[in-house]
Design goal:
By secondary structure, the protein is α+β, with helices and mostly antiparallel strands. The protein has a single domain, classed as Gcn5-related N-acetyltransferase (GNAT) (Aminopeptidase), CATH 3.40.630. Helices cover 33% and strands 35% of the residues. It contains 6 helices and 8 strands. It is globular and about 45 Å long.
Length: 181
């Protein structure tokens, strides 16, 4: 399950990750478009890490990959995947600590996860959804070859307001065609 890229290691969460998870999820800029509120208490992070560690990337449900910076040996974010019951469709989401944003780490991490989903797990389709104001997440998905499939107006009530959601999707055939291009 361990994956390595040029600069990152994607792995299962471990108990020692909880303080760092609490730290970056407590950053208001990181939490802005996410379902949790900042601050993100250590106790909540410890519970989250236990739940993350107990799940499986090969079974239906959510699995959270820890993104570790290989050279620094530090947790810098996470990629979440919800594998559907049919094991052929998935949802993806990603979070990166502010200090590591804008440097290509999210693109590198999400690419590695997509590669695993399409090449090793045989997933047919992956979708992503983000707050329409989250232009950086939308741009990342478009950069990776996702197609913008829709806009859900005032879909989500979060942090006291109704927000629009953008829907994205990518098919295995589209991802695998990137190698031939």
């Amino acid at each position: 399950m361990l994956m390595a890229t040029e600069r990152l290691i994607l792995r299962r969460f471990r108990a020692s990750d909880a303080p760092t998870l609490a730290e970056y999820r407590s950053d208001p800029a990181v939490a802005r478009y996410q379902s949790w509120d900042a601050p993100f208490p250590l106790e909540k992070a410890e519970l989250a890490v236990r739940n993350f560690a107990a799940s499986s990337p090969d079974e239906p449900g959510w699995f959270q990959y820890a993104i570790e910076h290989a050279a620094e040996r530090t947790l810098v974010g996470d990629v979440g995947v919800r594998l559907h019951d049919n094991l052929k469709q998935a949802e993806i989401g990603f979070t990166l600590a502010t200090a590591y944003q804008g440097k290509g780490f999210a693109t590198e991490a999400v690419s590695a996860v997509l590669d695993r989903l399409f090449r090793l797990q045989g997933v047919h389709r992956v979708m992503g959804e983000c707050d329409a104001r989250n232009t950086r997440s939308a741009a990342l998905m478009e950069r990776l070859g996702f197609t913008r499939e829709g806009l859900l107006r005032q879909q989500t009530f979060i942090k006291g307001e109704w927000t629009d959601d953008l829907l994205f999707g990518i098919l295995a055939s589209e991802w695998l065609a990137r190698d031939r291009a």
